[in-house]
Design brief:
This protein is about 75% helix and about 0% strand. The longest helix has 23 residues. The two termini are about 30 Å apart.
Length: about 70
């Protein structure tokens, strides 16, 4: 078990800067990323033309892939 921990450990200088925490893997970091992604999706969905069509296709494809993965379980 100690060997696995050593693989994921950074050098002492980086560990000191991070304070032992993983960067951006916090509640607020994840919330920020979700807000940015949702904002981009909303902007493309509200626009007209090719970008709206592309966003709709991406959303449909993503939902289909999620359904396929859920049915495999």
């Amino acid at each position: 078990m100690e060997k696995i921990k050593d693989i994921h450990q950074h050098c002492p200088e980086v560990e000191n800067l991070m304070g032992g925490k993983m960067p951006f893997v916090t509640r607020w970091g994840i919330v920020l990323v979700v807000i940015i992604i949702l904002s981009i999706v909303a902007i493309f969905s509200l626009s007209e033309g090719t970008s709206q069509h592309l966003m709709n296709n991406m959303i449909k494809h993503t939902i289909e892939q999620i359904k396929v993965q859920l049915y495999r379980l």
